[in-house]
Model the fold of this input.
Amino acid sequence: MRQSDIPSVYALVAEMEWNIEISYLEFVFNIDPTGLVVVVKDDGELIGHCGFLAHSDTIGCFGLNIIKEKYQHMGIGKQMFREAMKVMGDRNIGMNSLSNRITFYTPFGWTIKSYTFHHNQGPVNPEFIAVVPEGDFEVVSARDIKFDDVIAYDSEIHTVPRSVYISYWARHQLANTYVALKSGRVVGYGVVRPSDVGYKMYPLYADDPKIAKALFCRLALHIPAGQVLSFIQPIENDQANEFVVGNKLTSRFVMTRLYNKWNIPLDIKRVYSISSSEYGII
Ligand SMILES: CC(C)(COP(=O)(O)OP(=O)(O)OC[C@H]1O[C@@H](n2cnc3c(N)ncnc32)[C@H](O)[C@@H]1OP(=O)(O)O)[C@@H](O)C(=O)NCCC(=O)NCCS
Done:
């Protein structure tokens, strides 16, 4: 894939209503374009894209996976997938499959199911955020603290340090990032960012549900009335589910994280909203 392909990939993703900003595609490309694959017709039309992003020498994440509707069911998707597999090398590759499509990936080796999550969307319920928990912690803007502490906390939960990735996402000029501190130590953080459709609230990681809700309430204040919130909740986190129920969010689709070599166990109780279902580990 070349930099000049980005607008066509964006058009393809937008056509599918996947709500992935062009700036996110540029960002993934700028981190490392070597794993990104496109399908281009002889006349130059771009009709497919998928790829993987290396998180380390041993771990990578597969992301997106799309063939223009007019060209589906002609064998192109399978061929594109095989090409992408060649560039993945020997890494353990995580990918998110629609939960009702996981058997497609079995013959290719993605047999290890890690966790399942819902892509939820809907307006924030003002009554839900009216009650803000208090405790022996404070919630501050990430601009007021050393960001290295957030990166360290993120690395602990995400399992693979990703300072470039998370710095871009959480310190973007449009992002609002809040951090929960207990005696000066990071015990949670969350990001809210405008996207093509509504606002994305992820990641949201916290050591306990009270801290998570306090962060949720603070972040939600940045979402103007009438706008929708996107919130990607792992089903194993019951407390995160209460946020979904409390705001009456609608599940748009359900995905399962698969690995092809080994599982990467996560402390999912601290994960309330997944940082990105595309190219991130959680
Ligand atoms: C999934 C997709 C990339 C497959 O491309 P394709 O060119 O239509 O696939 P092929 O013609 O090579 O393969 C035919 C079959 O294998 C399935 N398949 C092929 N590649 C696939 C892939 N990477 N992931 C899932 N299923 C795939 C196709 O869905 C199709 O199954 P069906 O006939 O029972 O519907 C394409 O259908 C698409 O863009 N769908 C919409 C986006 C989407 O759902 N992406 C997957 C998210 S997990």
